[in-house]
Amino acid sequence: MKRAADFRADARRALSGNWLTAVGTTFVAGLLGANVTMSGGQSVTGSVANQGGNLSQMTEDIPSEAMVVIAAVVVAVASVVAVIGLIQFIVGAFVSLGLIQFNMNLIDGRQARFGDIFSKTSMLGKALWLRIRIAIFTFLWTLLLIVPGIIKSFAYSMAGFIMAENPEIDAKEAMEVSMAMMQGNKWRLFCLNLSFIGWGFLCLLTFGIGFFWLSPYTNAATAAFYDEVSREYAG
Questions:
Q1: For 109-131, what is each residue's pLDDT tens digit?
Q2: Considering the entire predicted model, what is its pTM?
Q3: How far is it, in rounded angstroms, from Cα 220 to Cα 97?
């Protein structure tokens, strides 16, 4: 049975000679709101909303006339950010499937191209419904406690890979197969994710520049993980 180090080694082998393409493809896909686990991710909208309390404290001593102008600017900016976040959530759904296909091609030794991220455009409806279902179910489980929500996020994590590989299935079936596939494998994926934490800290020392390389690395390792557990599940 493969461990985290084995999946990382598979990812490095797949990325050898493909780093430039992988970095560029992952960067563009990320701008469009994509990720291989089909989760919505942390949007800019949430970051702006989190600053609401701080903003109110900072503006206590500002004259009321200026406050009207500031309020109008804040509303305008928040509206633009909200629209961008919504577009990223929608477009990122099918681009996520394309990013998954790109990484599966890498791991399988097939030619991985930038255009792969747009190869699932026709699956927009299915991909979007899958992303919405995952977000809803994860949120509902999180309401019980944080830990059940985290566990369920790992249980649903392979749904995008399953749909990308089997375009004929729907969101509900993709999530059900993912849950079955991840039985006994959630801890393995957790350990794989945890094994990148040191690299994450190093990337912070580069003012975030290192994440341009870390993200393709983690995506390829996740694809290698899916390749392994899907073979075990089929067997």
A1: 999 999 999 999 999 999 999 99
A2: 0.85
A3: 14
